[in-house]
Design goal:
Its EC number is 1.2.1.3. By secondary structure, the protein is of the alpha/beta class. It has 17 helices and 20 strands. The strands form five sheets. The protein has a seven-stranded mixed sheet with strand order 14-15-16-13-12-17-18, with helices on both faces. Strands 9-8-7-10-11-19 form a six-stranded mixed sheet, sandwiched between helices.
Length: 501
């Protein structure tokens, strides 16, 4: 007689501080798989003392790391990339379980992308940090003698950076902050999103493998707002880099202002996909449908508002309905699944409230929107999981909440317009301005239209990204830009050096 082995209990993870590991001072909390609703592991609850210790470690490490040569900083970042790729098979199942991402997204859009970000900023560490300025003849003044005055502008590290990250792509989002910050000579205390911090904690093992100096990277976690708030409040933290909701970003900006912290805030979005009358719908429909197909719509750049010329309106609605119907919803471990769960039951309920509110305001539900559909193709444990089917709402007006506020889920609304003037007015009529899209056979027309959109990024006939562009938002979608070489500037202070010949 044989018996199945008793499964091991979920592991309790530890904080990574000053190159070592410590228990959370306030205990631990469970991290739940959004598909199975089972506990993946227990994350440490950092106490105020834990945060203080992590900040102190980063402050102590800063003096040495900031004076480390660029070539050595680049070598450390390249070793981190190598060590991360070597642990790919450990990271993928953990990241998939804690995020609920489909196996395709978890395997292709997490570890490889994060590793490439470390490599990109290994190269970035070697980019010139000095900008020479033309000599300037200055006449004598009571201040100083006259002469030919020379100067340079030099990028210097900011200091200790607190990186507070979002839940949708945990290690990718962290790598996008951590790598340029370290490349510039800063040190980092990271506070991952509470929903899925385990992969970010595991990055500590990667830094150990890479032989990184202790204290340059520290990770503290917590189930609520207290851990991040302690970072923002600390007088020893010089900068906060935050990705998340606009509501939280406002609080960080206000609280961080007390100590004049530098801020990089990448906040919410309400992307408009403007479909002009000459658009190729074979391009436009799948691009807009990416709001459903990519990580269940949990992405701030998604084109969740389809603004469609009235002559193509019904055609686009029908095309999107067919696209939604073709997307398999269910177990994220199945290779055929396109739409997995959203991150928590609370978030699922929030998304459903937007759908119900839109229907109450007069919108027409074309696809999705019922709990039965969410579990029609259930995951491994029937009836479990935080699923929202791809939802399409037509006859939406610009004033509806679902058309103005960020839903952050697989919900697309379709709004008609008569001409370009109305399209621009609708696109700009939200508090957000992160990423919009224009679809037209005339790319010069689309280019001109993009100039009128109050948004940090515009895709023309594509939902693809360019990794070297400056990324950030207008209005309440954020403050500052990162990406490519702009990321080096984001984690720098400028110092002017002046001398006289």
């Amino acid at each position: 007689m044989t018996t199945d082995p008793v499964p091991s209990p979920p592991a309790t993870h530890r904080l990574f501080v000053n190159g070592g590991w410590r228990e959370g001072g306030d205990g631990s909390y469970p991290v739940v798989n959004p598909s199975t609703e089972q506990v993946v592991g227990h994350a440490p609850e950092a106490s105020a003392a834990d945060v203080e210790a992590a900040v102190a470690a980063a402050r102590e490490a800063f003096d040495s790391w900031s004076r480390t040569g660029a070539a050595e900083r680049a070598a450390v970042l390249n070793r981190v990339a190598d060590a991360l790729l070597a642990r790919n098979d450990e990271f993928v199942p953990l990241l998939q379980a804690e995020t609920g991402a489909t196996i395709r997204v978890a395997s292709s859009m997490q570890v490889p992308v994060a590793a490439e970000r470390f490599r990109r900023y290994a190269r970035g560490a070697l980019e010139a940090a000095v900008t020479p300025l033309a000599p300037y003849p200055v006449a004598a003044t009571p201040l100083a003698a006259g002469g030919l005055t020379s100067a340079v502008a030099v990028r210097r590290p900011v200091g200790v950076v607190g990186c507070i990250t979002s839940y949708n792509f945990p290690i990718v989002n962290l790598a996008g902050k951590l790598a340029p910050a370290l490349a510039m000579g800063n040190t980092v205390v990271a506070k991952p999103a509470p929903q899925d911090p385990l992969g970010c904690l595991k990055l500590g093992e990667v830094f150990e493998d890479a032989g990184a100096p202790p204290g340059i990277f520290n990770v503290v976690t917590g189930s609520g707002a207290a851990t991040g708030a302690a970072l923002v409040a600390s007088a020893e933290v010089d900068m906060i880099s935050f990705t998340g909701s606009t509501a939280v970003g406002r609080r960080i900006a206000a609280d961080g202002g007390h100590t004049m912290k530098r801020m990089l805030l990448e906040l919410g979005g309400k992307g408009a996909g403007i479909v002009l009358e000459d658009a190729d719908l074979r391009t436009a429909v799948p691009a807009i449908g990416s709001a459903w197909a990519f990580h269940s719509g949990q992405i701030c750049t998604a084109p969740t508002r389809a603004l469609v010329h009235e002559s193509r309106y019904e055609e686009v609605v029908a095309g999107l309905a067919r696209y939604a119907a073709a997307l398999a919803v269910g177990d994220p471990l199945s290779p055929s699944t396109v739409v997995g769960p959203v991150i928590t039951a609370l978030h699922r309920d929030r998304i459903e409230s937007y759908i119900a509110g839109a229907a109450a305001e007069g919108a027409r539900l074309v696809a999705g929107g019922t709990r039965k559909e969410h579990t029609a193709d259930s995951p491994a444990l029937p009836g479990t999981g935080f699923y929202v089917a791809p939802t399409l709402l037509a006859e939406v007006t610009p004033g509806m909440a679902v058309a103005r506020e960020e839903v952050f889920g697989p919900v697309v609304v379709v709004i008609p317009f008569r001409d370009e003037e109305e399209a621009v007015a609708i696109a700009n009529a939200t508090d957000f301005g992160l990423y919009d899209y224009v679809f037209s056979a005339d790319t010069a027309r689309a280019y001109a239209l993009a100039a009128r959109l109050r948004t940090g990024n515009v895709g023309i006939n594509t939902a693809q990204r360019h990794p070297e562009t400056p990324f950030g938002g207008f209005k309440q979608s954020g403050v500052g830009r990162d990406g490519g070489s702009y990321g080096l500037s984001a984690y720098s202070e400028l110092q002017s050096l002046v001398w006289q010949s």
